[in-house]
């Protein structure tokens, strides 16, 4: 997961306070025997098992139970959290993986697509395209939701499926965070 999206889910902002950012350690990693495919009509990918493939992602340490709860809500019923083994990258190569140097193997949990392959497009999901063209609607800002709002108005479709900065899932998570703050203040 892109760190800015991770921060948005866990802390409600893609630019958390330095003390919040310091709670997590985010490192590049490789998940072998899986591939990343585009979910039809959506901005985000699905990770599915595929023996001859690998997925570049992130290894995150320091997540709390509350963070994992938020991630579970964010990922929704299309995914299942599963134990997998990843390799932490000691040296990060280019986007094609050339120059990657793999380090230790670590058992982690990741979200694997369980909503059926019929909902997936053929071919690899393009992370670079997501960063350049679509990430803004996931992390918040000023006008980046105009295209999402327009898609919802004209086609009844939300390419983030409620996961974006102003989406229904994010609004629920923000409500949970406010409730937690109020409980801790009492």
Distance between the termini: 34 Å
Overall, the morphology is: globular
Number of helices in the DSSP assignment? 7
- Give the structural class: alpha+beta
Number of strands: 5
Radius of gyration: 17 Å
Order of helices and strands: HHEEHEEEHHHH
Please sum up the structure shown.
The protein is α+β, with helices and mostly antiparallel strands and 186 residues long. It contains seven helices and five strands; from the N terminus they run H-H-E-E-H-E-E-E-H-H-H-H. It is globular and about 40 Å long.
Task: Explain the overall architecture.
The protein is of the alpha+beta class and 186 residues long. 34% of the residues lie in helices and 34% in strands. Strands 1, 2, 3, 4 and 5 form a 5-stranded antiparallel sheet that branches. A hairpin with a 5-residue loop joins strand 1 and strand 2. Helix 1 crosses helix 3. The longest helix has 18 residues.
């Amino acid at each position: 997961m892109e760190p800015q999206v991770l921060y948005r889910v866990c802390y409600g902002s893609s630019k958390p306070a330095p003390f919040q950012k310091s709670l997590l350690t985010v490192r590049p990693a490789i998940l072998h025997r899986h591939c990343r495919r585009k979910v039809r009509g959506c901005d985000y990918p699905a990770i599915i098992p595929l023996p001859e493939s690998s997925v570049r992602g992130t290894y995150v340490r320091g997540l709390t139970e509350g963070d994992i709860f938020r991630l579970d809500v964010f990922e929704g019923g299309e995914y299942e959290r599963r134990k997998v083994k990843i390799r932490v990258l000691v040296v990060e190569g280019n986007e094609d993986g050339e120059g990657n140097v793999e380090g230790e193997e670590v058992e982690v949990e990741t979200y694997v697509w369980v909503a059926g392959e019929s909902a997936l497009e053929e071919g690899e999901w393009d992370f670079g395209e997501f960063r350049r063209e679509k990430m803004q609607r996931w992390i918040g800002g000023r006008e980046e939701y105009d295209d999402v709002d327009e898609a919802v108005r004209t086609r009844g479709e939300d390419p983030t499926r409620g996961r974006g900065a102003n989406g229904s899932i994010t609004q629920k998570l923000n409500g949970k965070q406010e409730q937690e703050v109020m409980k801790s203040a009492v």
